[in-house]
Design brief:
- The complex is a heterodimer of chains A (70) and B (231).
- With 70 residues, chain A is mainly alpha-helical.
- Chain A is built from three helices and no strands.
- Chain B has 231 residues and is mainly α.
- Chain B has one domain.
- Helices cover 74% and strands 0% of the residues of chain B.
- Chains A and B meet through α3 of A and α1 and α7 of B.
Chain lengths: 70, 231
């Protein structure tokens, strides 16, 4: 029983530590990152990049073909 | 494939920029917070613009030395892509500023007068307008040789004007932009942190190469059109 009480107190102190030592911190996107949602953003911007690059590649090929014909 | 290695390099560097730029460690700064990552995008636009304008002026000088029309063509099209990157830099800067420099307690439009007073904004606007005038000047001359020669000379003047407009004046006057005391983004000792530098420099190269790629396509297309026009 004593052990259990000690353990509870220890756990309480362990979790309250961050609450007690709170300093004004600059807020960053940690939560978003731990949720893994920043990867959604990366996927989106990579999709846009891929689209643009594919467009450029196609244009490049088309012009190369035109150059060959001339 | 041999000729295309730099295009592949550009794509790889941009992909690296997008991934490392979002996930890499950045300094925790009040107010800026995560927007500090805009360094990899907004600032790179201006770097790419500067490099493209430099390529343009080099071609202008080469035209004046050789009088070969192909240099005039390159000079014109590199300047065009430079303007595009400058406009993108302006647009991204406007978004960034409205969430960092703008006073959140008053409507956004009321912060405009304080932000628009920033000397770097005015200098960049002057530089872009000078290059816009280059386009207008070109298209207003019908004679091909005269057009090429006059616009090549004007291009050199426009490039020289970039130095006071975007480098010297903003350094002298107080500015909202950081890094006025030294070489912003290039000062290795006490500017941006090293964790950001390993993303920023590849990003500059990647964006610039993308600009060069776009311009190369435009040049090749223009060449074909010119050939059709001649025959």
């Amino acid at each position: 029983m004593k052990k259990l009480v000690l353990l509870t107190i220890a756990i309480f102190f362990f979790f309250s530590q961050p609450l007690l030592s709170q300093t004004p911190k600059t807020e960053m996107a940690e939560l978003m990152r731990s949720d893994g949602r920043i990867y959604v953003v990366i996927a989106v911007i990579l999709a846009i990049l891929t689209g643009l690059i594919l467009y450029l590649v196609r244009l490049d090929r088309k012009i190369a073909k035109m150059e060959k014909e001339n | 494939m041999k000729k295309h290695w730099w295009k592949i390099l550009s794509v790889c560097l941009l992909a690296y920029t997008f991934i490392a730029g979002m996930l890499g460690p950045v300094p925790r700064l009040p107010l800026l917070q995560e927007t500090i990552r805009n360094l990899y995008f907004h600032v790179c636009m201006w770097f790419a613009m500067m490099i493209l304008f430099t390529i343009s002026v080099v071609h202008a000088v080469r035209y004046l030395r050789t009088l070969q029309p192909k240099f005039d063509r390159s000079s014109r099209l590199y300047a065009g892509t430079g303007i595009l990157f400058g406009l993108l830099g302006y647009g991204t800067g406007a978004i960034w500023a409205s969430f960092t420099w703008a006073d959140p307690n008053i409507p956004l439009i009321d912060s405009f007068s304080t932000i628009a007073r920033d000397p770097k904004l005015i200098g960049a606007a002057v530089a872009l307008l000078v290059y816009a005038a280059y386009m207008v000047l070109r298209d207003s001359i019908n004679d091909i040789d005269k057009r090429a020669r006059i616009s090549a000379v004007y291009n050199i003047f426009a490039f020289v004007l970039l130095f006071p407009a975007i480098w010297i004046l903003p350094r002298i006057l107080p500015s909202l932009h950081p890094g006025n005391e030294g070489n912003p983004a290039l000062d290795v000792k006490n500017d941006i942190s090293s964790s950001m530098r390993i993303v920023f420099y590849p990003a500059v190269l990647g964006w610039t190469l993308l600009g060069v790629w776009i311009t190369q396509l435009k040049i090749r297309l223009q060449k074909l059109e010119d050939k059709k026009f001649e025959s």
